[in-house]
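Annotated sample (chain length 416).
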Amino acid sequence: MTRHHPPPHQQQQQQQQQPPLRLIVNAVNDNAQPRGPDRYLDELLRAMADLPDAPSVQLVVAPWQGHFNDTPLGPQGRLHRVTPPRGPIPRVLWQALVFPRIARRIGGDAVFLPNLLYTPRLHAPSLLTAHDLLQFRAPDKFGALKSRLLRWLIKRALHSANRIKSVSAFTASDITRYTATDPQKIRVIPEGGPAPAPRTTTKPDPFFLFVGKVERTKNVAQLIRAFNASDTLRALKYRLCIVGPDGNAADEVAQLLPADRVDRPGFIPEAELTRLYATTRGFVFPSTAEGFGLVLLEAMARGAPVIAANATSLPEVAGHAALLVPPDDQTALQQAMEDLASDDALFTRLQQAGYRRLGDFSWQQAAQDTLGELHDLAGRAPPRQPAARPAPGPAPAPAPPAPARGGAGGAGPRGG
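Output written by the structure step:
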């Protein structure tokens, strides 16, 4: 799709004259507690609010979504509380039939849909976000009937949107693989990542960490088997911590427990998660179905070396900053954990590579690129570029050891 923008001097004149883009954002979902798409939207809007041409965000939320109360909304931005039904089928109908009327009443230059929402007949051009297409790739995660309905809705959502924002090249390829979507409609705009947070101690604790919902596609059972099979890890007195809520693999995992060296705390507070990330020897994520993989960047930010499956979007996110193992290869996964547990040089190399990798994922850049697409859809001049940031310095080194205190606690999941 070719863009036809005015010459640079005319663009500058238009940028100085045009009011902020009035942007309607549909954040409505069933999440009373923020999950991945909610955190994604909050981070994106916070970064947008800091841009030179910050939009005027009209954020549509449900009464139970209090986690957006403090999200900055730019000049003349406003939170619009609506009353959608909580049930999934009634809410699908609400999105298709009621939200377009609400958007028309609010009025705006463009509509941003932060997830795969089917909202046809909007009054303004729309940008739809695709995080993944697991309903096509891993339908057993949702059940036969639900996945069939979701695939039908997703195809229509992709068709009705004026443009599609994919968070990874992998998800973009899945869109064209499983649907008849025109590739010219798709823009790949990766998510941002957290800032590096140097560890307060140079000595990690002897345990590996997994964070995410306990689902078959996450390969949690395989991870436990690989860990338990290792005499090396047993001799080194390593533990494995599985953090996250139950999913469709919970029964299978329960049959592998109790294992004397595997902890299963479930969902625990964010502060505990941060502490686990900052003390683990390594973060292990053998998932075979991801649309992006933000959890890898969260681990890297806290100095945790990463072991991940060489599958779906994970190599795209990890780059050369992780040990990538073939998916569904228990022996390779076991070997990677043994290597990381016993090789201090490998630990340091992966930790420093992870810090550097974070520089490739910027929320500011994600916000700038997203706003550029929205301006283009609305027929406006491109937004002004933010002031150049200084080039990233060397990877942060660990701070001196902190005074002795209690051991690491549990953690709360960010993956879903």
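Annotation: The two ends are 34 Å apart (CA to CA).
Annotation: The longest strand covers residues 205-211.
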